[in-house]
Amino acid sequence: MIQADTDAIVRVVRSCVCGSDLWSYRDTFKREPGSRYGHEFVGVVEAVGSAVTKVKIGDLVVAPFSYGCGTCWWCEQGLPTSCPNRGTWGSGSEDGAQGEALRTPYADANLVVAPGGTAAYDDARLLDLLACSDVMATGLHGAVMAGVSEGSTAVVVGDGAVGLCAVLGAVAIRKAHRVILLSRNPARQKVGHRFGATDIVTVRGQEAKEAVLDLTDGHGAAHVIEAVGTADSWQTALDVVSDGGQIGAVGVPHTAPTLVTKPLLGRNLGVRLGLCPVRHYLDDLVGRVVAGTLAPGAVFDVTLPLEKTPEAYALMDRREAIKVALVP
Q1: Residue 153 maps to a domain
Q2: Distance of alpha carbon 310 from alpha carbon 328, whole angstroms
């Protein structure tokens, strides 16, 4: 139901399960029974408030996983994640995307229209759009924070949907010459190659460090994207980054890794961590999908009807799926 004149009601066309949703599924993160879930969706506008002028009823829209007001200083700086009026779907009192419809505050500021409506997009391209709502933007954000640029060599630590999209972002958008993906899963390696990974390292820990050093003439890579958020993945990122290099971290640290700063100082390392301001990237990403030059939807390797959402969680928990899309 419309509650403010800047609201829109969006009927969900595609949504999905995120790796972060598994934290409460595994009881790592406590949530109240009956909590709403899901923060990634593509949908059709069903109703708009009186102040909404940029989106209209019937538009196919993509939403960032976290919204801002669109008018404050932080939003104007491209950092809606710091907006004092920010919110995230499926948290607190916000509607969740793992459902049939959502109320979307600040609709004009957050909803990006995919031209042509649902008739213009087949199942694969709807999933391409869906990926832009979180994992594609987050992977790209990691590449940006790591300083990946044309002709550079990057390492991606993590082969989940975000890590795989970091490969795609580094290659297709930041124009990296070489991307080394750390992955022990053949299905994920296949997607990594499809997205542009030039090398796959299939070991962990000290062996991974040695393998990356062997691939980079012994000095490591100047650009490393950390896309897991565990103490082990952070240690690997530090092991494989070259002195003077940059780590861009988008893996949410659910095990609270600790960084000792003195070794970073001695090695002249840069470290940036960031919750992705998806809205900052969304117009460009949707434009690339519409133009047919970006196809991140391959991270969705299973699609299930909404009523089978518990099965989707179980598949991802057992790492039998990279990312599960849901169809209401």
Answers
A1: yes
A2: 14
